[in-house]
Amino acid sequence: MSDSLVIIPTFNEKENIEKIIRKVFSLEQDFDILVVDDGSPDGTADIVKRLIIEYSSRLHIEERKGKLGLGTAYIHGFKWALAQDYEFIFEMDADFSHNPDDLIRLKDACLNGADMAIGSRYIKGVNVVNWPMNRVLMSYFASVYVRMIMRIDIQDATAGFVCFRRKVLQTIPLDKIKFVGYAFQIEMKFTAIKYGFNVVEVPIIFTDRTEGVSKMSPRIFREAFFGVIQLKWESFFRKY
């Protein structure tokens, strides 16, 4: 068993899931994988279960009934990882927008003093490939908006490529994390900072998916926009 677990939430990722699993397992460092599948009707879970026969001690799956949201999938995975005594716990997409090679760099950041390492698209300019300009601008200025409202020095607040040290997830009251989309990513970073953890950004190149369908929606964007204000307001009345 590795000391590192990569959590990959899935909904209809049959085009990507086997390739991403094999890529992670080909890395020079050992990472285990937990797939949290939200009842994908395209057979994503069946592909994972077939691969478990080949990677029995390193690959795991948790199946949930219905599309319950990214944030709840990660919370489910975090609790599972803590119960299994993993020290380094990662968030990563299934679609290769996050380069699995960068898992090693995120872990190195945590080995060298970070409690939470963020794979950042914006810490060194704008490092996004294959996104239309309107989405680049929306994502970039969303992070500017978060920094202005929440007064945190994070360039890529909505990033979903993250390594946590175990103690961060043990400290944050996971059952009180309320958001499910991009706002979930903001909430986790903001909460970790409020608890005094060392949060650092590691520059990455983000490449938009080439297979499968994006899960981005106007509802998720609205949640992030208004959720930032709600989080900041509630932080005035909360003890960390």
Automatic annotation (TrEMBL):
Question: Would you tell me the protein name for this molecule?
Answer: Dolichyl-phosphate beta-D-mannosyltransferase
Look up and give the organism this protein is from. Answer: Sphingobacterium hungaricum
Its signal peptide is none
Domain of life the protein comes from? Bacteria
Among its keywords, does the record have Transferase? Answer: yes
Question: InterPro entries under this entry?
Answer: DPM1-like, Glyco_trans_2-like, Nucleotide-diphossugar_trans
Q: Name one GO molecular function term.
A: dolichyl-phosphate beta-D-mannosyltransferase activity
Q: A Pfam family name for this chain?
A: Glycos_transf_2
Q: Name one GO biological process term.
A: glycolipid biosynthetic process
Please tell me whether the keyword Transferase is annotated for this protein: yes
Where's the Glycosyltransferase 2-like domain?
6-171
Describe the family membership recorded for this protein in Swiss-Prot or TrEMBL.
Belongs to the glycosyltransferase 2 family.
Q: Which GO terms describe its cellular component?
A: membrane
Key words of the record: Glycosyltransferase, Transferase
